Amino acid sequence: MKNLSLIFVLLFFWACSSDETKKELFTYKSYFQTNISNPSGLAYDSFNNYFLVVSDKNDSVVYRLDTKGNLVDSILLSFDGQDFEGISFNQKTKGFFIADEGDSVVYVVDSLGKKQTKISVPISVAYDLQSGFEGIAFDSQNDVLYLAKEKNPTLLLKLKTNGEIIWESQASYGLEDFSDLFFSENKLYILSDKSSKLVILDLKTNKTQNFSFPVKNAEGVCLDSEGNLWISNETENRLYKFTKN
């Protein structure tokens, strides 16, 4: 009888352990409708608690949204891009970096929308204009950028802010494509539109965590100051909020 009781206890703890292992990283909370057509890149302004958005429909504006998806203001840029696909907030200058798929460059922009410089990024693989840079993330502590090439093949690049490439990788992490990036606490958040999945890559250990989400046409990703996950949808112009478990 004692042995039987011990078996039940062990089974109980195993079941609890299994449930914990299967626990999702985030839980869907709500979505907010925006009036931005085809949002293609998403970033978080940690100083003002705003989102920064670039759109496939307008390559001369950066939009600021509040956490309800409402338009706060529009920043008219001092230049026109070819095809803005990614944006990342610069915590050092309160400006931002914009990845332009059309001509394979990164624009460094101040908080007022004035172009500070343009970084040309040479890469080692050939690609067409429909499979270029889709996402960008900035590590302000180490002053480095991460860029994601969409597909055929997928490509991750780490580079200095002067454009010098530190490393590049064709690892796909089981994703069909890359649609955006976000950096936080030495982890790179890699979003996939086609796979409807987020891969969180620990840059120290190279270990990954996966989170599947019920959002189609996901083109932008970021975390806010509370650790909530936000994903932007390109076709329905929505912001989806997921709370951290």
Instruction: Specify the biggest β-sheet.
Output: 4 strands, antiparallel
CATH hierarchy: architecture: 6 Propeller
Low-confidence stretches: 1-21
- Top CATH class: Mainly Beta
CATH homologous superfamily - what is it? TolB, C-terminal domain
State the end-to-end distance: 39 Å
Rounded mean pLDDT score: 89
Secondary-structure element order, N to C = HEEEEEEEEEEEEEEEEEEEE
User: What's the overall geometry?
Assistant: globular
Oligomer: single chain
Strand content: over 45%
CATH domain topology: Neuraminidase
How many helical stretches? 1
Name the helicity range.
under 10%
Which radius of gyration do the C-alpha atoms yield? 19 Å
DSSP strand tally: 20
Domains, number: 1
Q: What structural class do helix, strand and pairing data support?
A: mainly beta
Question: Within the largest sheet, what's the order of strands?
Answer: 1-20-19-18
Briefly, what is this?
With 245 residues, this protein is mainly beta. The chain is 9% helix and 49% strand. It has a single domain, classed as TolB, C-terminal domain (Neuraminidase, 6 Propeller).
